[in-house]
């Protein structure tokens, strides 16, 4: 078997083919390793992001049954969390829309 292998590899075209196949397999392995390393780094970043969420109990007034949005935001600020305030939530439920911006639904009588 060794003599046959030497005879095959001894030819220049066979050597070139062998080197191309070895090079291709090494390139594929390098690509897979690089892709997996990137995936590991992304997952590590995600784990760190999820690990940093701090929580604090919302302190309620004894005369109030439920916490308000302002109480929740205050507790989040105390823990150092970033607060994303929606413009609608900070204004309350009142709407400043004009009548022409509204959809009017008419209820007709049934025949």
Layout of SSEs?
Layout: H1 2-9, H2 12-51, H3 69-79, H4 87-91
Molecular shape: elongated
Fraction of residues in H or I helices: 55-70%
Series of secondary-structure elements, N-terminal to C-terminal: HHHH
How would you classify the helix and strand content by structural class?
mainly alpha
The largest sheet, given as strand count, sense and whether it forms a barrel, is:
none
The DSSP helix count reads 4
Gyration radius, to the nearest Å?
34 Å
Mean pLDDT: 75
How many strands in all? 0
Beta-strand content estimate: under 5%
Notable features of this structure?
111 residues; 0% strand; single chain; elongated; mainly alpha; 2 domains
Structural write-up:
This protein is an all-alpha fold. The protein has two domains: 1-52; 54-93, no CATH class. It has four helices and no strands. The model has no long low-confidence stretch (mean pLDDT 75).
